[in-house]
Write a structure and sequence with these properties.
globular
Length: about 210
């Protein structure tokens, strides 16, 4: 297969991220697509760069933002509330097969190294991108046209996670992200009260340790 054919096949796979829908919804009421999620993360990375306390290679950060969910073009996105232990294992296997397919088309060790880097989440770049990944979910909760859909899953599963210590403290790694999340949380809390007549205390486990 020629290089042009391989790259064209890869572009066809990447295009599917423009239609692969996530559970989160946008200000228009539509489901967010994975490509938009990755784009949001890249925009956030550029915006917070001057305020970061950890030195990062921004080019690598943007690469990770663009690549981190690329396997979902083949393996598809699975909402968190559906991820049983069995499904998590199968999801990992399917994503590894997807990575192998992508790498076979690109034939570039650089791409594999970025997938491995994000999976390990050990470098400052990968840790930042993971936080941006989580933060974008919060932004979608804040901006969604109607928050009722979030509440209906598994007795408030996503709100319990959103307001949990685990979610809050993960942003301590970068103070600016912690401040932004605090602002997002305040706005979401007000929307839940005003639009859904929901007190967030019903979702907070006061005895929680890390979840």
């Amino acid at each position: 297969m020629t290089t042009a054919k391989r790259l064209t096949d890869f572009f066809c796979i990447a295009e599917k991220l423009e239609t692969e829908k996530r559970l989160t919804r946008t200000s228009s009421g539509d489901n967010q697509v994975v490509a938009a999620h990755s784009w949001n993360m890249a925009i956030m990375a550029l915006a917070v760069k001057p305020y970061l306390t950890h030195d990062v290679n921004m080019e690598r950060v943007l690469e990770l933002c663009l690549l981190h969910d690329l396997p979902e073009a083949i393996a598809h996105d699975i909402p968190l509330h559906k991820q049983t232990e069995y499904i998590k294992r199968q999801k990992h296997i399917n994503e590894q097969h997807a990575v192998d397919t992508i790498i076979s088309l690109l034939q570039d060790d650089f791409i594999k190294s970025r997938f491995d880097e994000y999976e390990a989440k050990q470098t400052p770049e990968a840790r930042l991108v993971k936080l941006l990944d989580v933060l974008d979910t919060g932004i979608q909760h804040m901006c969604a046209k109607d928050l009722a859909y979030v509440t209906k899953y598994d007795n408030g599963f996503y709100w319990k996670l959103f307001f949990s210590n685990k979610f809050v403290t993960c942003f301590d790694y970068e103070p600016i992200l912690s401040e932004i999340y605090g602002e997002i949380r305040n706005r979401v809390e007000k929307r839940l009260i005003n639009e859904q007549n929901l007190d967030i205390n019903r979702f907070i486990d006061r005895g929680e340790n890390d979840a």
